[in-house]
Write a sequence for this structure.
């Protein structure tokens, strides 16, 4: 045996053979490959619309399919759609494209689906059980309206302090932030363009802030408005967008960043326009 | 004293936004603590003169804490990361930039815009670098704690 051969054989010994796929967990009676794929797609759907990162969606689909013994899967996820195909000699053919509009963020649903996929990998659920759990997750109750309004108000007030506002400013921001969320929760009879909606919200905030400021509630108009628009700031889209970009999901990452920037631009535009109008009307009083 | 007040406010604000993002109730204290810790670091380093360093280190702390707690509580890191970064995200900085532009105050827009951009870049780098750390580091932290 030459030296090279020796080295080669030693290397072979060091690298163990690639591990065979683990034994799939029990699917339940009568669950076909298609049901498993539907389940994985549905889990991805719930995750994506609740504001999870792309790689988490892909990972969850992958994990569920592998747990139930489908290895030929190919998932391609965008920020508003999932493409899932599967099929080989041994597994049934499956192909679905699903459009998923971006809904509001529900991190509790992300956590619940995460927990579910963990349990599926441990073999705790059949396909049908998992499906019904997912449907329950989708029906998880929203936070109550008064809670949201209160939190928006508290958030505005406390962030006003962080931007250097005095206690009086924070109180004003508290009121304006609450009013803002009241407006946002108001049901619209037809869907409105996001840009227009945010411009209007920004104008509303500016109008309320100036009114309260004129009444002598706050001192510094800049910090009051800065605190009050905080509920409109797309912090989630920004953070998730960065993570997507960091993971190399450029399309989704840039879509989310663009979404975040567009929202904040519109809000600023709304505030600026409103202040300009008030400025012109009052003849430069503020 | 001011710092303490701000940290408390950061805690409260972060919890308030955690609720708006529908974070499960049991994680509220953690979210608030991470948000307050991030803000504390940011405010402590900011007076030393380097804005990007402050935002970067604060982000690094937030993400490390988020990952540790996520591993410990066995839940997605997104929950803590999104809530904890909320006080640092330069949303209001960008808002101020555009606002100054609309008001035709170009100097103000430049200053605000530069600051917002610096914050944003630092946060991006912070997030990407800490997520490059291997998951093993954080799993070890869990097994020691339990």
């Amino acid at each position: 045996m030459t030296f090279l051969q020796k080295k080669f054989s030693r290397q072979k010994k060091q690298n163990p053979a690639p591990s065979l796929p683990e034994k799939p967990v029990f699917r339940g009676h009568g669950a076909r490959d298609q049901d498993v794929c539907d389940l994985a797609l549905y889990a991805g759907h719930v995750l994506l619309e609740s504001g999870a990162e792309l790689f988490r969606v892909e990972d969850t689909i992958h994990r569920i399919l592998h747990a139930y013994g489908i290895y030929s899967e190919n998932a391609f996820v965008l920020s508003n759609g999932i493409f899932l195909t599967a099929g080989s000699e041994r597994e049934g053919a499956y192909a679905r494209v699903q459009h998923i509009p971006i809904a509001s963020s529900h991190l509790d649903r992300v956590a619940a689906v995460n927990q579910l996929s963990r349990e599926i990998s441990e073999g705790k659920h059949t396909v049908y059980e998992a499906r019904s759990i997912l449907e329950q997750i989708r029906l998880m109750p929203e936070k109550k309206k008064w809670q949201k309004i209160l939190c928006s108000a508290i958030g505005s007030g406390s962030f006003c302090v962080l931007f250097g506002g005095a206690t009086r400013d924070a109180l004003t921001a508290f009121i304006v932030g609450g009013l803002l969320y009241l407006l946002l929760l108001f049901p619209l009879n037809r869907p409105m363009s996001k840009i227009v909606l945010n411009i209007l919200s920004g104008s509303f905030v500016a109008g309320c802030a100036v009114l309260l400021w004129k009444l002598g509630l706050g001192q510094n108009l800049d910090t009051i408005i800065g605190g009050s628009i905080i509920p409109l700031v797309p912090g989630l889209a920004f953070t998730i967008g960065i993570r997507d970009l960091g993971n190399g999901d450029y399309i989704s990452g840039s879509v989310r960043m663009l979404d975040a920037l567009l929202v904040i631009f519109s809000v600023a535009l709304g505030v600026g326009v409103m202040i300009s109008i008030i400025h012109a009307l009052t003849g430069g009083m503020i | 004293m001011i710092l303490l007040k701000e940290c408390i406010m950061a805690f409260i604000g972060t919890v308030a936004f955690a609720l708006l993002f529908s974070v499960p109730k049991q994680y509220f204290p953690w979210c608030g603590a991470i948000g307050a810790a991030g803000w504390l670091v940011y405010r402590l380093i900011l007076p030393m003169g380097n804005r990007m360093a402050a935002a970067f280190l604060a982000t690094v702390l937030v993400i490390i804490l988020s990952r540790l707690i996520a591993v410990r509580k066995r839940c997605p890191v997104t929950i803590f990361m999104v809530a904890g970064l909320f006080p640092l995200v330069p949303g209001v900085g960008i808002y101020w930039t555009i606002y100054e532009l609309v008001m035709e105050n170009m100097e103000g827009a430049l200053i605000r815009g530069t600051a917002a951009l610096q914050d944003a870049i630092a946060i991006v780098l912070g997030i990407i670098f800490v997520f490059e750390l291997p998951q093993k580091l954080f799993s070890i932290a869990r097994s020691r704690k339990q």
Remarks:
- Chain B has one domain: 2-145.
